[in-house]
Amino acid sequence: MSTATEAESGALPSLAPTSKADHAWIVAKHFAIFFFLLALWELGSRAGWIDPLLYPAPWSITKQIVLIYFIQGNVWHHLYITFAEALSGLFVGSLIGIGLATAAALSLRFREYIKPYIIVIEATPRIAVGPIFIAWLGFGFSSKVALAALVCFFGPFVNTLTGLLNIDAEAEELFRSMRANKWQTFWGLRVPNSATILMAGMKLGCASAFGGALVAEFISANEGMGVLMSRYTYVLNMNGAFATLLSITLFAFLLFKFADAVDYYIVFWRSDKLMQRKSKKRKAAFLKSLG
Amino acid sequence: MTDATIGASGIEARTELAETGWKRLAMHILVFVIIVGVWELAGVFNQLNDLLLPAPSVIIGKFAEMWLPEALGGTGRIYYHFFLTLWEAVAGFFIGVSIGVSLAVTAAVSPMFRRYLAPYAVAFNVTPGIAVAPLIIAWFGFGISSKIALATLVCFFAPFINTLTGLLHVDEEASELFRSMRANRQQYFWKLQLPSSMPLFIAGLKLALTGALLGAIVAEFFSASAGVGILMQRYSFKLDIGSALATLLSMSLMGLLFFTVMEILDYRVIFWKRDSRMQAVSKKRKAAWRM
């Protein structure tokens, strides 16, 4: 599971450890390669080797980005809509996922009975329910939230369940030998134990909620990034389509970073600095409570 | 690879059996019959709106109609669409896996390549692959190639990141053993890195297959003339929800088919995960060695 979380956060494993000066040099080299690739693309486009109608040149994409963000400023509204859909979907979906997982962790019988359904739900391409949701809930906001929730609930569900069930055997023995009751074990042992992997599940859910919202918009909607993108593509305004795609990437990345930050504070025992600060605070509170 | 955790096997392993064998199966069937029975009764007493949620018998009727050949009173309509989507997904899967694995092996062998690939991989990871659907349609047209391309795009990342992680995270002690025996690079790769990456690799394949199916279906939503995705969309937009749900059921079937294939692969390839398989294989190898 540890590898699991790592790759999840999108970091490629095991980059060579470097000093600070080296680091700056490496970043510079990265940028050099990046701009070299861009320049090649631009040149290829100007020289007519690459059809600009299908694969627009970097410079015209940049102009288009400036256009949709600052001159026309029409992208903000669509961004807001898609974000609202994806985040509401994530909220609903993770509520359902975590609720189900908690119930399944507490009751062996419930876990047994939902297992076959979970397998079927997992095997079904859930995004395919999109058209049905649109038929049920209409063309507006709610169908997108529903699809996002359906698509994303699985990550938080499985991860929470795994975290709640896979507890350290020795810690469990300690709890038993101190005669902890079921609730104490749950809150004191299982919940903290599941925090790491739950957060990984939420991140995963976040990505799929985005996908769900976008697909629902592709199917039918009148606003949102998905609509913006398909409109641009249908009129073969590829600059616009690329600019939209890049915005999706950028904002998804920011969301990811945000999730990482939340993760950092919730799972405080993973970072030594935070851990010490927290433990100092708790010690002070404890001493104070003694009077 | 929280990726990796998301397999139904995640729940499987930790479910201790409450009852055994037949009794358990009987209880499962009973629960299922009760749920479906209540649903059907609601239909019989006209509590269901056929435009929103038809009774199970209606759905099963539509399902049978789709799957039965004309000689038996059905339309047999699903086969063409089913196998088309199956083909798109499988083709996308193979292309995607080849790309992902070759990138992963290159990145594992060359730290330099790994370092320069990392930022692009991160950017790629946060972009929902299906968001590229409109662009793919514009590039590849309305035919089958655009579906295969989207399936490839959606599915290549999981095998890539999983294989890479598996290749890089080898057991420290095993690695030391290899070094102390003066294993050369080839031996190190083939005898240590490759086998130890297998569990993660297979987990990546599982994800990729689901992803490929998803990509194919989403591309079909966009614009296609055949495939289960478009079938689903047509039925939903006609408000023939019974048929739409029957199509969804067929998609679940396809998903389960994929799931089963992957489980078998998992069982055969990672033989050391299960004791009984391990013993069987080791017995066979012992016999072969004696010869």
Task: Based on the model shown, name its key terms.
heterodimer; A: 291 residues; mainly alpha; MetI-like fold; 13 helices; 0% strand; globular; B: 291 residues; 14 helices; disordered N terminus
Structure description:
The complex is a heterodimer of chains A (291) and B (291). By secondary structure, chain A is mainly α. Chain A has 2 domains: 29 residues; 229 residues, MetI-like (MetI-like fold), CATH 1.10.3720.10. Helices cover 80% and strands 0% of the residues of chain A. Chain A has 13 helices and no strands. The N terminus of chain A is likely disordered. Chain B is mainly alpha-helical. Helix content of chain B is 78%, strand content 0%. Chain B has 14 helices and no strands. In chain B, helix 5 crosses helix 8, helix 5 packs parallel to helix 9 and helix 9 runs antiparallel to helix 11. The longest helix of chain B has 38 residues. Chain B starts with a helix and ends with a helix. The N terminus of chain B is likely disordered. At the A-B interface, helix 1, helix 2, helix 5, helix 6 and helix 8 of A face helix 1, helix 2, helix 3, helix 6 and helix 7 of B.
Point out poorly predicted stretches of chain A: 1-15
CATH homology group of the largest domain in chain A = MetI-like
Question: How would you name the oligomeric state of the polypeptide chains in this document?
Answer: heterodimer
* H/E series of chain A: HHHHHHHHHHHHH
CATH arch. level architecture of the largest domain in chain A? Orthogonal Bundle
- H/I helix tally of chain B: 14
